[in-house]
């Protein structure tokens, strides 16, 4: 992350039930450049996108 100058990475494990493609929900982890990891529970992809946008706004 440091080499790429990233503030965070959003990752999802597509092998979990209710996550990945062909489903309306997802389960993600947000990895921050300071080493924190935030686990988001299963929620709709719309809710996840709003949550991610809120996190991005915190950096602005």
From TrEMBL:
Domain DNA/pantothenate metabolism flavoprotein C-terminal as annotated: residue spans: 2-58
Membrane-spanning segments: none
GO molecular function: catalytic activity
GO biological processes: coenzyme A biosynthetic process
InterPro entries: CoaB-like_sf, DNA/pantothenate-metab_flavo_C
Gene3D superfamilies reported in the protein's UniProt record: CoaB-like
UniProt source species: bioreactor metagenome
SUPFAM superfamilies (UniProt xref): CoaB-like
Name the record gives this protein: DNA/pantothenate metabolism flavoprotein C-terminal domain-containing protein
Pfam families (alphabetical): DFP
